[in-house]
Amino acid sequence: MHYDPYRTAAFAPDVTLGRSGDVEIVLEAVVLRGSGVLVALGVRPDDSWAHQQAEWQAAFETWTAQARRARDEGASTPAQPQRPWVQLSEVPLVITDDAGTAYSRAVITSDKAPGGRWEAIWRFHPATPAHARRLTVRIDKEPDRHHAHTLLL
Q: What is the pTM of this model?
């Protein structure tokens, strides 16, 4: 495929990039646009994911009861339990291309998707140049351990 920077190009590789804690991180989509690159990460549901979901649900229900009680008593509301899918926004995600583009990144969202799946959408700037032929998405954990997937443009 030849990439045209004036048109949107989308890829949906659905490949594992690595792990964050006990959950498997999946590269769900890469979208090349004239304004930049969008990368969607998700998790592959497994026993660890189900356990974290259940723990968070129980903690959230407890927090809800405590928050109602605090509100009724005029006290300050306790801190909400951290959502487990927030860990996706902490993944050290990096993209590179064979043209040597210096990409900067920002997390757009990190949330629970329909069906309980976790997802995070990252935006990278600038747009991939037209002469680039390879775009690599990787989790940059340790210098000697890169989990990557390369797209041919």
A: 0.75
